[in-house]
Write a structure and sequence with these properties.
The structure is a homodimer of 386-residue chains. With 386 residues, chain A is α/β, with parallel strands linked by helices. In chain A, the strands form 4 sheets. Chain A has an 8-stranded parallel sheet. Chain A folds into 2 domains: 12-297, TIM Barrel (Alpha-Beta Barrel), CATH 3.20.20; 310-386, no CATH class. Chain A is globular and about 60 Å long. Chain A has helices at 58-61, 70-75, 79-84, 88-92, 104-115, 157-167, 185-208, 225-236, 253-264, 281-289, 299-305, 337-341, 344-352, 356-382, and strands spanning 12-18, 25-31, 34-38, 40-44, 66-68, 98-100, 134-137, 142-145, 152-155, 171-172, 214-219, 242-245, 273-275, 294-297, 308-309, 316-317. In chain A, helix 6 packs across helix 7, helix 7 (185-208) runs parallel beside helix 8 (225-236) and helix 13 packs across helix 14.
Amino acid sequence: MISAPVVTEQFKFEILYQSKISRARVGKIHTPHGIIDTPNFVAVGTNGSLKTLHNHDHQNLNVQLMFCNTYHLMVQPGTALIKEAGGLHRFIHRHQPIITDSGGFQVFSLAYAQAGLEQRELKGQGGKKHANSVVKVSEDGVIFRSYKDGRKILLSPETTVLAQKDLGSDIIIPLDELLPFHVDEQKLKASFDRTHRWECRSLHEHLKNRQNQAMYAVVHGGSDLALREKSCAILTNEAFDGFAIGGALGSDHQELYDTVKGTTVHLPIEAPVHLLGIGDVASIDKCIEYGIDTFDSSYPTKAARHGMILTREGPLKLIRTLHAKEFIPLDEGCQCQTCTHYSRAYLHHLFKANEPSAASLATQHNVHFMMQKMENIRTQIMCGLI
Amino acid sequence: MISAPVVTEQFKFEILYQSKISRARVGKIHTPHGIIDTPNFVAVGTNGSLKTLHNHDHQNLNVQLMFCNTYHLMVQPGTALIKEAGGLHRFIHRHQPIITDSGGFQVFSLAYAQAGLEQRELKGQGGKKHANSVVKVSEDGVIFRSYKDGRKILLSPETTVLAQKDLGSDIIIPLDELLPFHVDEQKLKASFDRTHRWECRSLHEHLKNRQNQAMYAVVHGGSDLALREKSCAILTNEAFDGFAIGGALGSDHQELYDTVKGTTVHLPIEAPVHLLGIGDVASIDKCIEYGIDTFDSSYPTKAARHGMILTREGPLKLIRTLHAKEFIPLDEGCQCQTCTHYSRAYLHHLFKANEPSAASLATQHNVHFMMQKMENIRTQIMCGLI
């Protein structure tokens, strides 16, 4: 009745064109569930659903890679249930590639929210509503309490990998430690070392049963470029399939750019590179030049739910009265289903009337906008402009 | 860019088959925006959107008639703006027929909510959150205050018709008065008379400029069958295109059935009959036999948003733990997009995780269920079973 996704291919990163003026490149990530054209934007569907959209519609939107959060799926509905359903692709009815994280980011965000040590960062934290749920952090891993039923859950390098095996995502991520932005040298050093031990333990667990999945290492080191270089040296020495730039990425755009630029130069040119949790238009434009292949962020979908529309002329706050009588599409020339059928005036009205379709029509547009943007970037690289 | 709906035909009710064992019949209502097969269910899209769904998707769901609320559209975005947009069909991008009410039901619900005189009825009241907004009721009409900007709005037989002219809906409804369920004889009599004066004034206003719209009279008389007969006698004497059964319909199912049965016998067999605000499966089954052609109700869409799924085995509360591991469709054999692609377990998870797609996937199913049910009823009538 409910058809299974078809597993066809092994993981492989193919570079089609390398820019001559920057580290930017156009490529294809081959996965068991199909191809991801790079550079690309990775839409975030935390609980196995891009908020307000339906997975069977993504093919229209051409969302080639979807990011799901292991922490959320561990708590609800549980990864064992998803395994029983035939894996995440089958459970959520998505035939295209999926990437999952380790769950560490969410769990550590909670710990710092508890201690009042939030990261002042560009990335959203998430999960603050579930504060006071972290029970213990040790070399083993971290024990947290499920906000759903109070049960204690151990998130360790081994359990996150096993959870991601249950999910069957195409790209998985090892456990790492998230630190608050400003910590002393000693703490940073201790965490840095532990993170790399955890990542290697994760890889070790993964390699016992590859299950046709790829694992991306997470490069750490905060905004200390020497530490970033060291992290790259450690991780590129292991059998990871790709690299994600994680940890504290800086407190402003310039620091982010410097961190990314100073990191990618130490990564092998032939490996795919993901930038964790960054997806604003300005950062994407800059980081493409430094060789980032994929970006994930909940910003375009979250912004849509708040009536913030991405357009080629910049963002547009649809709830403003000036849009009430604009009988034109959200973004002139946009080919998405929303812009094809509806006007700004209608969506303005839907937002004013608190109609749930406002958020879904806006989300459809913003996701399409990002996909179109990435396609344009790929074309610009091919044309020698980036 | 945004295409206009095509106006093709005049209003006409065509009876294809009249049951030999009941007043049930199969027919077609021809409207300028297409055909409505009857009996049919009319989905409610108060603000010009079936909650959680997109108008350009309705064709898949085969929602042949959509009910929009003039009261809500007068307040937000205003009917003048909708006229400026080219009418409601064009504004909301719906190419199929639309019926609008007069706004009276909502405004009077407010008045009684204010006075603590709520109707104890099968129908939902709506709008209670905007209480204390009715300023004055007189022979002229009713003045209420917009909850949006505080401006006073006169709802009279003439202004509701002019508002519905702005909207350009295919079927419009004259202003009537809604009374609390238990009132004394004298008040009932006075309201009864005024309602019929208002309906005739509405018709008079409508006939000045038909604008290719049809007007259904609203039959009143509470559960007093002699009054219902009298109402039918008055209204069938005027140039209405069809009849809607309104007013207080009873405090339980039996009283509803008796009222409907005792009313339709006094209506001309060749006119279409609508039952206002009733759409539960049991009532539909019964009232079809009494000759009801169309039913509107927000129940199937509202139920869906609360995780109540309509199935051929009866309603199913999806949030219950027993559905957590059911890897089967919501309703086995259902051909809707939700049942084709997703399992009960996935939707259970989406509801537990508060994902907005839970409501839209469930709504899609419930609306499809109602459409399928009405199609089955038409077949059963044709087969001589009803």
